[in-house]
Amino acid sequence: MALTIIPSVVAVPLHLVHILEVILGTVFFSLLFCVSVKFLQGYKNKPICNTRCLTDNDCYDISINVVSIIQACIAVFVGWVVMMNCRHDMIYDSHWLTNAYARFGVPYFYYDLVVMAMALYLRTEPLKDRRISSNWHNLIPALKLFWVKRKLMFLHHFALPLMFYPSLLYFRNGLGDFVVGAFYVFELPVPYIQTRHILAKLDCKASPVYISNGLVMLGAMLIGRILMFPYLYYCYAQYRGIPFSQVLGKIPIKCTISCIILGSLQVYWFCIMLRGTVSYFRKVIRQWLGADKGQNAVDNSFGS
Predict the structure, then answer these.
(1) Closest of 115, 112, 120, 110 to residue 158, by C-alpha
(2) pLDDT value of residue 115
(3) What membrane topology does the annotation report for this chain (predicted)?
(4) Residues in CB range of 166: below 8 A, 6 or more apart
(5) In the chain, where are the structural domains located?
(6) Cα angle 80-84-90, degrees, rounded to a multiple of 5
(7) What is the phi/psi pair of residue 94, to 5°?
(8) What angle do CA 86, 90, 92 make, to 5 degrees?
(9) Coil, strand, or helix at residue 52?
(10) Residue 231 CA to chain centroid, in angstroms?
């Protein structure tokens, strides 16, 4: 009689899966940065974009931007998937990606803090070897310098995960995945913001790509970070079957206060972006008008 051997399925402890997700995020973002730096260093001595040659510091700065772009794209995609799958019941519907991406994405903040600190240190300190790989022993001085120069960014990257991670995974009791997905979509303008930094680094501010990217950035900021708040309130009104005007009285006051604070910050940053864009276009228009006047003067001199 033949025996049928059925392989047993080994149950992996859930906490081990969670740890692996964090490790995977750490490896993914770090490796992505290293690959980007290696690729860009191949163009160090080759003129690109207005004969601009890349330095080691340029390679680090642009790689930081590239990783931020990819992280934001993943976050927006995950947020969209979660929202689409939880749209029928925005409070009780859940999706596994909500918490999985939180664990995967948390290491990004600390990776980004470390590489930004190292890039700043290598840019400001008189070092013979300006490669990050040769200066890991200077990590503590780099973090101290970053704290002195950019306290707000340091606090954002260090403290935000400490507040965001526990509240997202433990304090909400598995409710509101739809809302969490919406906040993942907050990353929508980030790819355009980072692309703007890259183009500025390459001295391409006068290019049509820079101009069009700036306009799309404003639109993404408006849709992803400002209009998202009234959209969430509208979805809640539809969910509860109440008029939009009654939503404020039906949700916890702490949620309303949080939305007001966060929304006010988004409006403030949007106004800064809008003011910068208007100033840029004024400068471009003045340059065009100046060029036209100069050309007319030349034509008149030849005509006379």
Answers:
(1) 110
(2) 94
(3) Multi-pass membrane protein
(4) none
(5) 16-124+133-187, 206-288
(6) 110
(7) -135, 160
(8) 85
(9) strand
(10) 21
Angle, vertex CA 69, rays to CA 65 and CA 74, nearest 5: 150
Q: What's the mean pLDDT in 94-105?
A: 94
3-state secondary structure of 206: coil
**Angle between helical axes of 208-221 and 253-303 (0-180°, round to 10):** 160
Per-residue pLDDT of 282-300, as tens digits, reads 887 887 777 555 555 545 5
What the block records as the tokens of 235 is 């979805």
The contacts of residue 76 (CB under 8 Å, 6+ apart) are 184, 185, 187, 188, 224
Backbone angles phi, psi at 186, to 5 degrees: -55, -25
Question: What residues pair up with 236 in beta bridges, in sequence order?
Answer: none
Structure tokens at 80: 């969209």
Phi first, then psi: give them for residue 246, nearest 5 degrees. -95, 0
DSSP string for residues in 161-223: HHHHHHIIIIITTT--HHHHHHHHGGGTTHHHHHHHHHHHHTT-TTSHHHHHHHHHHHHHHII
Q: Which residue has the tokens 């772009």?
A: 69
Residue 47: phi and psi, rounded to 5, are -60, 130
Q: Residue 145 CB: number of other CB atoms within 10 A?
A: 17
Paired strand residues for 48: 52
**pLDDT tens-digit series, residues 199-241:** 998 888 888 899 899 999 999 999 999 999 999 999 999 999 9
Share of residues in the chain with pLDDT > 70 (%): 87
